[in-house]
Every structure is written in C-alpha cells, then in structure tokens.
Amino acid sequence: MYASFCNKLDIYPDIPLLERNNHREFLLKGLKTLSQSYQCLDASRPWLCYWIVHSLDLLEYHVSEEHALQIADFLGRCQHPKGGFGGGPGQVPHLAPTYAAVNTLAILATVTEDVFKVLNRSGLYQFLMLMRDEEGAFRMHEGGEVDIRGAYCAASSARLTNMCTKELFSGTAEWIRRCQTYEGGFAGFPGQEAHGGYSFCGLAALVILNQPQLCDIPRLLRWTAMRQMKYEGGFQGRTNKLVDGCYSFWQGAAFPVIHMVLCQEDDLALSASGWMFSQEALQEYVLICCQHPLGGLLDKPGKPRDHYHTCYCLSGLSVAQHFTGGVLAHTCVIGSPNNLLRPVHPVFNLSVDAVLQTSRHFQMEGAPTL
Question: Could you tell me the maximum CA-CA distance found in the chain, to the nearest angstrom?
C-alpha cells in the first residue's frame, strides 16, 4: 500500500485521493448481492442497509426513488408486528437494527418521504418502552443485555421520530452518567472499561436528552484527545489498543459535540477555526491507510474491506473535513478538493439534510402513547 502511494506521487500532485468511483461501485454491489462471507451478518441486515446507504449519501450519490422504496419495503419486512425492527425478516426486535432502520429511512426520505409509510410509529414507541428498565437503562432486546448502546439507540430513534417523552427516558441520563469511568470515557455499563464506541453513545445520548452537563466534559475531552495516535494519525478505541479506522467517527465525532457543549457554556478557550484534534492527521490516515484499491475502506492496512468500516471511515473523514462553527464554518480538505464529503451530523451520524427533513416530518405528529 505504501509503495502504491509513493508511485502515485509522481502522477497525481493532489494525492491523497478519495477513490469515489471505486467506493461507490463497491457499495452499490453490496445493495444487490453479498458473498457467503456475509452470512454471519444475517441478523444485521438493516445495519448493512444503513452502512451502505449512508456511505453513498456522504459520497453524494442518491439512489433512485424506486430503489429507495424497495429498500424501505425490505426494512418493513424486518419490522416486528408489535413494533421495533429485527436483524432480518421474522427475527425478534432489537434496539441496534431498530436504530439502523430508522437512520436508513431518514436518509431515504431525502429522496421520497413515502418511505416513512412502512414505519409503525406507535409500535416503535411501545417497543422502546418495553426495553427500558426501572433505572432508565435499556436492554437491547427482550431478555437481552443492558448497556449504554441501548440508551443511545433508543434516544436517537425516539428523537428523530419525535417520541422523546418523560416516561420513556426518566432516569436515563442519570444512568448514563454512572457509566463514565475514572479515565474520562464511558463504559458499556457502570464499572467497566472506557471505550470509544460506548463513549460516543453516552455523550450523544446525553446531548439528545438535553443533559450533557451531567458528565465530566473536561475529563472526557482529555481521554478522547489522548486516543489519537501521534504516529498513525488515527484513533484507537481503548487505552493501549491499536488504531482502527472505524474510530475515525466513534472518537472523532465526540469533538464537535464537546465543542458545542462548551460553546453553550461560553468557554473562551475554544478555537474558532477547528476541532480539538488533528483533523489533517486523521484525514491522512483514512485516505492513505484505509482505502482498498478495489473500493471500500478498512480497519488498517492488511485488513479486509467491509461496509461497516467504509461507513465509519467516511463518516470520520467528513467530521475532519467540516468545521461547522456557525458563521465561522469552513472546510479543511487534505489532498484533492474532490475529496470533500457531505457534512455529517455528529450526534446521529446522518447528513444534516436527513436529520432536518426527518425532524420536520415527524414534528407534524404528536407524541404517541401506549
């Protein structure tokens, strides 16, 4: 990979290049057929829809209205009759594919809002209520594990569909606060180890619930900043672990969220020109080390490409390219100007347009009841 990069230096002065066409072809192929190696993801089919459709959206490729309705129809077949989405048709409802399905519909709604017709909104609310426990935490599925992913998946799905009620999230923010560790990051459950994915879930859920002040933001900022490695430029997920391309988003997206929280507190030390990590170094890691020559992105050199890493590498790349500080908003693009992706909303990991359109659509409907 390094030799290939050096050879291109003499030909393309604007490298590193984002290989848009190769990535698009890899993603479009995944919407049609998948190899046998994907059998292990049979219970993650809404996730595959989300990873692929979101990646295409960031690359500014829009599926046709016919294709959007076909994807929505498939997601509708993954929906349980009583509410919530399973990992595939006929599977039990689970908070993770429910989050993925709602996000996918939000993206497709920028093509046609008819995709929302498949969503059983009252059933979704009943499913979310069924998943919460007496402390305000959420189990992933009936009889399943309780962890911070559940709180985020529930909060994100509820916020996008205008269902954030007091009865649904009573005590949730306080439970999330208990997951923050002595290191500063968040664990999946109180008393466990801080982790990049869990930290994103905890912080984003608190923001959705309008209670980010409950956590220790300075400690979280320090822990997250320390996860960007000096040599590679990418992020590790935990202390003393290797860099992984997916944490370009899980860790990288925390910085604009923290920036927003501190800005509301009138923190005068905040930069007016960039996030509190090296945006250039992260872009170089993704563009030089994480692109497969045949399309798709990956964890690190030597690892196989997949749709999960394609989604989160591109999402992190978008975060690193866009500083959205109000009137001071600007872009920071390494390599070719054509590398620029659509801006991503760091809390929902959707394009800003998708979040706004979905929010407007469901604001017309009142909060459902049991």
Answer: 64
The pair of structure tokens assigned to 113 is 């809002």
Q: Mind listing the pLDDT tens digit for each residue in 165-209?
A: 999 999 999 999 999 999 999 999 999 999 999 999 999 999 999
Indicate left, alpha or beta for 302 from its phi (over 0: left) and psi (-120 to 50: alpha): left
Q: From CA 66, how far away is CA 202, in angstroms rounded?
A: 37
Strand partners, 308: none
List CB contacts of 361: < 8 A, sequence separation 6 or more: 109, 113, 116
Which token pair is 220?
């979280």
Q: Could you give the residue numbers annotated as active site?
A: 195, 238, 241, 244, 246-247, 299, 306, 309
Give buried/exposed letters for 9-42 (b at 16+ CB in 10 A, else e): eeeeeebbebbbeebbebbeebbeeeeeeeeebe
Alpha-carbon distance 369 to 252, whole Å? 36
Residue 82 confidence (pLDDT) above 70: yes
- Cα-Cα end-to-end distance for the chain: 55
Q: What is the pLDDT of residues 306-355, one digit of tens each?
A: 999 999 999 999 999 999 765 667 899 999 999 999 999 999 999 999 99
Measured CA to CA, the distance from residue 180 to residue 304 in angstroms comes to 33
- 4 burial (CB, 10 Å; 0-12 / 13-18 / 19+) is exposed
Structure pTM? 0.95
Burial 122-159 (b: 16+ CB within 10 A, else e): ebbbbbbbbbbeeebbbbbbeeeebbbbbbbbbbbbbb
Torsion of the alpha carbons at 60, 65, 68 and 73, rounded to the nearest 10: 180
